[in-house]
Amino acid sequence: MARYGLFLGCTVPARLVAYDLSARKVLEALGVEFVELKDVGCCGSPDMASVNKKAALAVAAWNLALAQEQGVDTILTLCNGCNEVLTRAVEALKDQNTLDQVNEILRQVGHEYKGGVVVKHLVRVLYEDVGLEKIKEAVTKPFKGLKVAVHYGCHLIRPSEVLKFDDPDDPHSLDELVEATGAVSVPYIEKLECCGLPVLAVREDLAYRIALDKIRSAREAGAEAIVTVCPFCYLHLENTQIMKELPEEEQLPVVHYPQLLGLAMGMEPDDVGLYENKLDVDRLLEKL
């Protein structure tokens, strides 16, 4: 297995300690060797390229160069946005002319990217590198009858020509990872729709409406929780229910996938940071 460099991005360490904590716990328990990348910053943001494409690429390349200098061949991300931005950069920098232009910028701050770094989201590492069988073997306390709505988010599997992971029209990786914990992944109409966060700054009403449609669709399908693998999706799906003051009987707790997996592996709720979740997660614990 590759030696991974854990890339946390901006939002996870600032606002989602539980995602960071639970991811580390399950990776360690599964024997995945990783180091935390030092001195890295913003990935370059999915939005930055719309303002200055060259600057965005240089920021992403700076992180790739730092990983390379620290002896890491595969970057492991917890954020869907970071996953897409860094993967796009890896692909763009395979063009020698583009690489030369970006390295011209990087050399001004003492760095150079030589190519060859691979970027993988946590889901991809668990699904492709660790494997479902090893994960199932690590599950000692499987969920019994827990129905879960899986939310892939936009930047884990799309654009498919860049990310080249799973089927963008009918994905299955996260569903299978969820079912490895004993939980049941329920199909629901809004499964592949965006959470709505990208328009929050300009159309708050629309952003909340999109999220509520997804939450209601999941609940109508019988889901008792929503599982996410993206910090932004998690925040928006959770905060929407709080901001819109959904009655408790209409709420669906939102959990990070490694929290779900950690619990099924026998970890205590505090071990996976369940105290950070703002919506009631007792119903999950009752299904263990």
Mean of residue pLDDT values: 96
Uncertain runs: none
What is the CATH first-level class name of the largest domain?
Alpha Beta
Q: Which shape, going by the Cα principal axes?
A: globular
Based on secondary structure, the structural category is: alpha/beta
The CA-CA distance between the termini, in Å, is: 31 Å
Count of structural domains: 2
User: In which order are the strands of the major sheet placed?
Assistant: 2-1-3-4
Written overview of the protein:
The chain is of the alpha/beta class and 288 residues long. It has two domains: 4-122, Glutathione S-transferase Yfyf (Class Pi), Chain A, domain 2; 132-285, 3-Layer(aba) Sandwich (Rossmann fold), CATH 3.40.50. The protein is built from 13 helices and eight strands. It has helices at 11-15, 17-29, 53-69, 80-92, 96-106, 122-130, 132-138, 160-163, 173-179, 204-220, 231-243, 257-264, 282-285; strands spanning 4-7, 34-36, 74-77, 118-121, 147-150, 184-185, 225-228, 254-256. It has a four-stranded parallel beta sheet with strand order 2-1-3-4. A four-stranded parallel beta sheet has the order 6-5-7-8, sandwiched between helices. Helix 2 (17-29) packs across helix 12, helix 3 crosses helix 4 and helix 6 (122-130) packs across helix 7. The protein is globular and about 55 Å long. The mean pLDDT is 96.
Task: Name its key features.
alpha/beta; 4-stranded parallel sheet; 13 helices; 288 residues; Glutathione S-transferase Yfyf (Class Pi), Chain A, domain 2; Rossmann fold; 8 strands
Would you kindly provide a brief summary of this structure?
This protein is an alpha/beta fold.
